[in-house]
Amino acid sequence: MDLRRLLGRGKGATARENERLLIVRVNEQEVASVRLEDIPCEITPRVQIDGSATIEFEDAAGIVHRHHAPDASGWLHLSVRVHSNLGCQADAVITAAPTHGAGSIIGDGEYGLRFQPFFLPSAPNAPALHGRGMFARGLHFSGLVTPANVLLSCECDHCARTFTVRSFHAGFSETSYFYSASGRYTLLVDATIKGAPAPLSEPNPQSLASLEARLPPSPDGTRFGYYNPFRCPHCSAPYVNFTAYPEQRAGEYYGLYFPDVPPIRLEKETGEIS
Ligand SMILES: [Zn+2]
Questions:
Q1: CATH code of the domain made up of 3-126
Q2: How many angstroms separate the alpha carbon of residue 46 from the centre of ligand 1?
Q3: Helix, strand, coil: what percent of the chain each, to 5?
Q4: Which residues, including other chains, have CB under 8 Å from residue 169's CB and lie 6 or more apart?
Q5: How many whole angstroms from 182 Cα to the centroid of ligand 1?
Q6: What is the rounded distance in angstroms from the CA atom of residue 22 to the CA atom of residue 12?
Q7: What does the buried/exposed string (b/e) look like for 241-260 if buried means 16 or more CB atoms within 10 Å of the residue's CB?
Q8: pTM score, two decimals?
Q9: Can you give the residue ranges of every domain in the chain?
């Protein structure tokens, strides 16, 4: 792909070619930038941190994707890939030691942070992802397991603020998950309980409705529902919107929860439900 043609810039547009298409900052300090001539590329700045780091990606139009890492002391190892289609993927590993090899296992006391991918302005085929699932957004990858110690930093389609979530593989744990109508809570239901849809399968509507009616309310009193959206904690807008896109529900086999609100587990043995 000819990026100069793509961006509508002729051979004489040297000044524009030197324009920085992406600037990366950590705690308001610039740590890297990308120009047109650099693409495709991977940049890997490393920054010492003490506390909750703010990581910003600013494009040439002035749009800032601002993420916040959880409180930690040590080193933030960033990897930012800018592809030929002007898509940007970034993640980070936070370690106590100053070194971390690319692709190395994330050890005890360390964690990864995967930022929601985004497209630079002028990207030719940026998909509409409003309300879409985690695979479509590039936060999980089909066929690749996301380790439990990788946090996902999501960007709300509505308010543009970011929030961090943890995820679990419902298939491995043989559970169904249900979000509360408030979007605050996640309920795990043992897949052997009658009416609980197995991961990757379409539910039986009657059995599901019967199960949902028997589920306890969430701690804030709202009901758990299989098609309830996962919501932005800042503005409550649907983020993974199963109400608008019920067809993506069965394939979203990673459930989500907020780090400060662990999932509630409902097991058959509890006697609360049968
Ligand atoms: Zn929001």
A1: 2.60.34
A2: 29
A3: 10, 40, 50
A4: 145, 146, 253, 254
A5: 13
A6: 22
A7: bbeebeebbbebbbbbbbee
A8: 0.90
A9: 3-126, 171-266
Angle at 129 between CA 27 and CA 177, to 5 degrees: 90
What confidence tens digit (pLDDT) does each residue in 207-227 have?
999 999 999 999 999 999 999
Distance, in Å, from the CA atom of 63 to the CA atom of 24, rounded to the nearest integer, reads: 12
Tell me, in angstroms, the distance from the centre of ligand 1 to residue 239's CA. Answer: 8
Rounded Cα–Cα distance for residues 59 and 88 (Å): 10
Residues 230-266 pLDDT 10s:
999 999 999 999 999 999 999 999 999 999 999 999 8
Centroid of ligand 1 to alpha carbon of 135 (angstroms): 19
Gap from CA of 134 to ligand 1 centroid (Å): 16
Given a contact cutoff of 8 angstroms between Cβ atoms, the answer to whether 35 and 17 are in contact is: yes
